[in-house]
Write a structure and sequence with these properties.
single chain, alpha+beta, Nuclear Transport Factor 2, Chain: A, 4 helices
Length: about 140
């Protein structure tokens, strides 16, 4: 099945609705991923990952920093062949500081060729300095 903007939007609607398990059903277990810059550990989530579980573990501290789930908006989706680019905006108050966290995320996703395509590779870009500073102020 070819990748469409609607298909990618469906995936990120799960993120928007804080349905992480449903969203990750669209991601292969052996996904190759990079968060921020894998060569420089600029934030707790920075790194390269060779499977879905390792990526989820690396980002698990992220969810515990807020008093409520992230409010995510989908700003833009571009699709070309089996590649999609998604721009998101996320916002939530910090659980210790109540300071408002706002960050923009850009993801480049590559899908496999299966009947129901799954993400086989992605790179996630965000403001790592802001994320790390916010994490230091609001972590458990």
């Amino acid at each position: 099945m070819p990748i469409t903007r609607e298909y990618v939007h469906e995936i990120f609607e799960h993120a928007k609705n804080n349905e992480q398990a449903e969203m990750f059903r669209y991601v292969r277990d052996d996904v190759r991923s990079m968060a921020v810059n894998p060569e420089i550990k600029s934030s707790f989530a920075s790194g390269g990952y060779t499977n879905k579980l390792d990526y989820q573990k690396a980002l698990s501290p992220f969810g515990s920093m807020f008093t409520s789930p992230l409010d995510i908006s989908i700003n833009r989706i571009l699709v070309d062949g089996n590649t999609a680019v998604v721009e998101l905006r996320s916002e939530a108050p910090g659980k210790r500081t109540e300071e408002r966290y706002v960050n923009y995320v850009c993801m480049i996703l590559e899908f496999d060729d299966h009947e129901e395509p799954k993400v086989k590779k992605f790179h996630e870009y965000l403001d790592s300095a802001h994320s790390q500073a916010f994490y230091e102020k609001n972590k458990d």
